[in-house]
Design goal:
The longest helix has 16 residues, at about 275-290. The strands form two sheets. The protein has an eleven-stranded mixed beta sheet, sandwiched between helices. The chain has a five-stranded parallel beta sheet with strand order 14-13-15-12-16, covered by helices on one side. The protein is built from ten helices and 16 strands. Strand 2 (about 25) and strand 3 form a beta hairpin. The chain folds into two domains: about 5-215, DHBP synthase; about 235-325, no CATH class. The radius of gyration is 20 Å and the shape is globular. By secondary structure, it is an alpha/beta fold. Bound molecules: threonylcarbamoyladenylate (TXA) and magnesium ion. Threonylcarbamoyladenylate (TXA) binds near residues 57, 93, 112, 116 and 136. Threonylcarbamoyladenylate (TXA) binds next to strand 5 and strand 6.
Length: about 325
């Protein structure tokens, strides 16, 4: 079992493994990442292999706060600088024009690269030890639910990483927010742990892509919806609060927002017991995993309030879903 405690000895061993071009699963404040040397094509190719990820899906480079950014990016806009000052270290990823130091495999041949400076102490220590950027996508098989615990990484990737460093459950539980700073105005590419409202206090960031929900409404066939973050059990979003249901269909698992019906169904979880979107985000992927493992034939999910992290939660759930009920 490659799961190890986050001791300084184990981090040193993990750093050595990365120096040798191997992969290591590491906790971050958002989700666990599968890390490898970000400036070595061969190391990066291991990530794609292990995740079974298509090479047209580019990776994020993670950096230490002291790393000289000009090695990997150029023409950093004044607004991008403001965003870095406000949100780094933390769950914000910025897309910037790349230098030739960044292997094409990292960026899938694009001339921009995604960069993030994470705040998790274990990831920071590893970045300090290796002193180069780490490429790290979420440590799941392509298209599956992102892992927020070391055990969930093991469930996804088995013995493939040289180490899975156990840093406990991720505090935020949902991936970083991605902003494309190569276009004017800067565009929100993925809603995430930094909310649109927080971004807009610093910079006039625009939402380009429709939300996944809007996208799904214009899809002619639900099968065309880019399936991602997906459990193996078909998942459906409910248009109305589930607590009003008088009867629950059999072999169905339920993800309630907060309110549990007086006569609850057999299998259910509660996303936000105290009603905050931060709490819901931190529990989302783990509860999806548990309901997926429950043996139910389908999962029904309560409507998600759109405030705070609700937008990011709804984005992930919509991508995971097979439709609305
Ligand atoms: O919170 C996170 O961001 C986690 C932790 C591990 O840091 N990482 C993560 O990585 O979510 P990943 O690979 O699962 O998602 C990165 C997303 C992908 O959807 C990819 O398409 C997009 O970032 N991306 C990366 N580089 C890009 C670029 N140059 N242009 C546009 N999109 C890019
Ligand atoms: Mg991912």
């Amino acid at each position: 079992m490659p799961i190890v405690a986050a001791t300084s000895e184990n981090l040193a061993l993990a750093g050595d493994a990365i120096q040798q071009g191997l992969t290591v699963a590491v906790p971050t404040e958002t989700v666990y990442g599968l890390a490898a040397s970000g400036l070595q094509t061969e190391a990066v190719s291991r990530i794609f292999e292990i995740k079974n990820r298509p090479v047209f899906d580019p990776l994020i480079l993670h950096i230490d706060p002291d790393f000289d950014l000009t090695e990997i990016v150029h023409d950093i806009s004044p607004l991008a600088k403001k965003l870095m000052t406000r949100f780094w270290p933390g769950p914000l990823t910025l897309i910037l024009p790349k230098t030739t130091r960044v292997p094409d495999l990292v960026t899938s041949g694009l001339n921009s690269v995604a960069v993030r400076c994470p705040s998790h102490p274990v990831m920071r220590e590893l970045l300090r030890l290796v002193a180069f950027p780490l490429a790290a996508p979420s440590a799941n098989r392509f298209g599956r639910i992102s892992p927020t615990t070391a055990l969930a990484v093991h469930e996804e990737l088995g013995e493939a990483p040289a180490f899975i460093i156990d840093g406990g459950p991720c505090s935020l539980g949902i991936e970083s927010t991605i902003v494309d700073c190569t276009v004017d105005p800067h565009l929100l590419m993925r809603p995430g742990a930094v909310t649109l409202q927080e971004l807009r206090e610093v910079a006039p960031v625009r939402m380009i892509r429709k939300t996944a929900e809007e996208e799904s409404q214009v899809q002619k066939s639900p099968g065309l919806l880019s399936s991602h973050y997906a459990p193996r059990t078909p998942l459906y979003l409910s248009a109305r609060p589930l607590a009003v249901l008088k009867e629950f269909p059999e072999q169905t698992a339920f993800l309630f927002w907060r309110q549990v019906p007086r006569f609850p169904p057999l299998t259910f979880r509660v996303l936000a017991p105290s009603g905050t979107s931060q709490e819901a985000a931190s529990r989302l992927f783990q509860l999806m995993r548990e309901l997926d493992a429950s043996g139910a034939k389908r999962i029904w999910v309560d409507p998600i309030p759109k405030e705070g992290l609700g937008l990011a939660i709804l984005d992930r759930l919509t991508r995971a879903s097979s439709g609305m009920i």
